[in-house]
Amino acid sequence: MNALGIQLAVELFDCDENILNDHRLLEQSLVEAATNAGATVVNSVFHQFNPYGISGAVIIAESHIAIHTWPEYRYAALDIFTCGTDIDPNGIAEEVQYVLSADRMHVSRILRGVTVGEQERSYAQTPT
Amino acid sequence: MNALGIQLAVELFDCDENILNDHRLLEQSLVEAATNAGATVVNSVFHQFNPYGISGAVIIAESHIAIHTWPEYRYAALDIFTCGTDIDPNGIAEEVQYVLSADRMHVSRILRGVTVGEQERSYAQTPT
Q: Which residues of B touch A9 (CB under 8 A)?
């Protein structure tokens, strides 16, 4: 793979609107999905909007996972950005789809850092 | 615009490697770029990796900005996700390009939540 990172832009439709508005459950679920995929969670920040909607990001040693929810449309925008080959971002997407009870999911895959030079690459990043 | 959000996947090449490894400057710069664009910053989380590289995310009322840097390749992956029409994500990209002294920038634009129903939409989210 000639890229530094893989990013999945995940569209989740027809979700459970109550879950989309539960920021503690969402944060816990994204952290667990990252951990289950073998990622190392570094930090996370989630925010509940008024009257509804959540935005959150989980920083992992292998990049990040972010989510924005629109409970009024039963829709969530999920982003999974991973570097290296140890983490399967599709597994994270499927776990979040399950947690949100999303009837439909559409995934766009974007390669990042593709045209960076051909020198030997070190993907591993160790949290300090 | 028939979408809930616009996401820019911004590739920044040939950056200043010292700036790419300065997590305080990066956090300050992304927060300032968001504010200058008229966004409301809700929270931010940045992490310095060992031996180098930064990952960070700024949660804004209008969604998020995230960055991952590879100083060893003078490369940064920037993501700007905005909802509503008040914020110009291209302005944020250009400001970050300037801060990082990136000689080359490539921007991919992704529409999010496009197939959500046609009912009247409320973009505004007020931080609690």
A: 7, 110, 112
Mind spelling out the 3-state secondary structure of A63-81?
EEEEEEEEHHHCEEEEEEE
Q: What ipTM did this prediction achieve?
A: 0.86
Torsion sign across C-alpha atoms B20, B23, B24, B28: positive
Q: Rounded to an integer, what is the distance from CA A57 to the centroid of its chain?
A: 8
Q: pTM to 2 decimals? A: 0.88
- Mark yes or no for CB contact A49/B61 under 8 Å: yes
Q: How many residues does chain A have?
A: 128
What mean pLDDT is predicted for residues A8-36?
Answer: 96
H or E segment at B26? helix B23-36
Q: Is B126 in contact with A50 (CB distance < 8 Å)?
A: yes
CB contact under 8 A, B4 and A70: yes
Domain membership of residue A71 as a residue range: 5-109
The answer to whether the Cβ–Cβ distance between A57 and B73 falls below 8 Å is: no
Q: What is the CATH number of the domain that holds B102?
A: 3.60.90.10
Whether A71 maps to a domain, the answer reads yes
Compute the distance between CA of residue B24 and CA of residue B29 in angstroms, rounded to an integer: 8
Question: Is B118 inside a domain boundary?
Answer: no
Q: What is the mean pLDDT of residues B78-82?
A: 96
Report if residue B126 sits inside a domain: no
When comparing pLDDT for B29 and B116, which is higher? B29
| A83 catalytic residue (yes or no) | yes
CA distance A34 to A30: 6
Q: Select the residue from B31, B74, B81, B125 to test the A interface by mutation, using most A Cβ atoms within 10 A.
A: B125
Active site residues of B: 63, 68, 83
How many structural domains compose chain A?
1
Is B93 within the bounds of a domain? yes
